[in-house]
Amino acid sequence: MTKNIYQFSCEDSKGQPVNLSDYEGKALLIVNTASKCGFTPQYEGLEKLQKKYGSDTFSVLAFPCNQFGGQEPGTNEEIVEFCSLNYSNTFPVFSKVDVNGDEAHPLFEFLTKEKKGLLGSEKIKWNFTKFLINKNGEPVARYAPSTTPEKIESDIAKIL
Which range marks the domain in which residue 138 is found? Predict the structure, then answer.
């Protein structure tokens, strides 16, 4: 049974395949994001983490999702432009995905099975649910949407 994320492939914002094994040896913070959410300002904190820990040892991976209140209606191109213009994000923003249901991306099926939410739920409840991945590609923690990137920083520092 798989215990790390490296067998998964995703699409970048231009629809090109990206193997998550490309991130082997790095700690990651995988986040389902949305541009029109009350938590959207967390993009700023995510970028601060990206800049502080650098791309050699750490990366935020953003996965836009429109499953919660239709808060990510844009195209992949519009989403990347929004992140760049409003938050100067330098971390990867992938193509839009579903994180729940029959069309859920296999990566998120894996993450939610490995790190359950409140009361053992596997479903992601809202935008900006975060998964911390260690340098071996193993999920080590799950954070609620209301948990700010700043509150996760000490956990990131511990696994670097």
Answer: 9-17+26-159
The region, left, alpha or beta by phi > 0 then psi within -120 to 50, assigned to residue 101 is left
Helices 149-159, 42-57: inter-axial angle, 10-degree rounding:
20
Query: 131 lies in a domain?
Result: yes
Split into its structural domains, the chain has a count of 1
| Active site amino acids | 37
pLDDT tens-digit series, residues 23-53: 999 999 999 999 999 999 999 999 999 999 9
CATH, residue 110:
3.40.30.10
CA distance 145 to 147: 5
Q: What is the pLDDT of residues 101-115, one digit of tens each?
A: 999 999 999 999 999
